[in-house]
Write a structure and sequence with these properties.
single chain, mainly alpha, 14 helices, cell membrane, monooxygenase
């Protein structure tokens, strides 16, 4: 692999990486064949291959640079995320595709939602424009995880890298042990945080969790209209696949990183060292710079093309999708991560002079 690239990713790279699989999935849902296998290769094998061949993207955008078209791409991706599940259901329950092609269509759709729609929705829920925010919430609700819009903003960003955050995995906890607490704890803590906000509001309106539930109910109703009970089952399967990737992303990006407790009992401020990062070219484009995770926690409203890579931010040795795949095998994950975590742990201070204890 060549050395680091001298320029940050242009917006065209984000658009090409995220949108290229969409026509492949659309054509594949109608006629199957090579279209589906090409989409699957783009979202899986091609990412792993290109990340090894292309230079790392260490360069940062100019501080204060603006990207006026960045939100337009997010809106387009959000709308695609709403259209792809019904399209996949139509193809997977029709008669034009073989059983392997139907499986590839369902799996590829879940990959696109988890790898691309999730980062897009994540960006949207951090926007101050209420229309963009609502689109992000709708995308998450379409994937039957609308509460993530609440738990991520109100719980994860506040308590990241502490035991109070269900999305932060302590060192030594495997992904499959982490998953139930992350899923159930995220729902519960997000509900608690939204309810607390409502108590302090003079005009609280409808509870956000009710909005999430209504949107998810609309998604499942649409699934039933398209294909009856099999449609509901397939939508649940696609959503579960996307949710698994959301939790994998949280697991990998904060695994084993802990904020220190200050003498006054508070947690230290969030710093670059509390998130894992990567600088691989293709997966950075595919995931809308989500691998530059430390800067996102420092500047949640900063648009994704402007995210920076702090020098003191810990880096994973693999692209984020590959790290997530490794995390599915906890013994392998722990063995491979152990030396990288050890390098982040400061050595114990030497004993004071005259102290004879070992």
């Amino acid at each position: 692999m060549s050395s680091a690239a001298s320029r940050p990713l242009p917006l065209s790279a984000f658009a090409a990486a995220t949108l290229a699989p969409v026509p492949l999935l659309a054509m594949g849902s109608a006629s199957g064949g090579l279209w589906l296998w090409a989409a699957l290769a783009w979202l899986g094998l091609l990412s792993l291959l290109l990340d090894q061949l292309l230079p790392l993207v260490d360069a940062d955008p100019v501080e204060g640079a603006e990207f006026p078209a960045a939100d337009s791409l997010l809106v387009l991706l959000g709308l695609v995320a709403l259209a792809l599940p019904p399209l996949a259901l139509a193809g997977a329950t029709g008669s034009a595709l073989t059983l392997p092609e139907k499986a590839a269509l369902v799996f590829s759709t879940g990959l696109w939602l988890g790898q691309i729609a999730h980062p897009a929705a994540h960006e949207l829920i951090h926007r101050s424009d209420r229309r963009l925010f609502r689109l992000g919430v709708l995308v998450y609700s379409w994937m039957l995880i609308g509460h993530h819009a609440s738990s991520h903003r109100l719980v994860h960003h506040r308590h990241v890298a502490t035991p109070a955050d269900p999305a932060s995995a302590p060192r030594g906890r495997g992904f499959w042990r982490y998953l139930p607490r992350a899923a159930l704890g995220g729902f519960r803590e997000g509900l608690r945080a939204e309810t607390a906000l409502r108590r302090r509001s003079a005009a609280p309106g409808l509870h956000p969790y009710l909005h999430h539930a209504l949107a998810s109910a609309a998604a499942l109703s649409l699934a039933a209209l398209i294909a009856g009970p099999p449609g509901i089952a397939l939508w649940l399967l696609i959503a579960a696949h996307a949710q698994l990737q959301i939790h994998l992303s949280d697991y990998v990006q904060h695994y084993g990183l802990i904020r220190a407790r200050l003498p006054d009992g508070r947690d230290e401020p969030v710093a670059a060292r509390h998130s894992w990062n990567t600088a691989h070219w293709f997966s950075s484009a595919l995931l809308l710079n989500a691998p530059r995770h430390s800067d996102h926690h420092s500047h949640p409203s900063r648009p994704y093309p402007a995210l920076r890579l702090p020098e003191d931010a810990p880096r994973l040795p693999w692209p984020l999708p590959l790290a997530a795949a490794i995390a599915l095998v906890p013994p392998l994950w722990h063995r491979l991560m152990r030396p990288h975590l050890a390098r982040l742990t400061p050595p114990a201070p030497p004993p004071p002079p005259g102290d004879s204890t070992a």
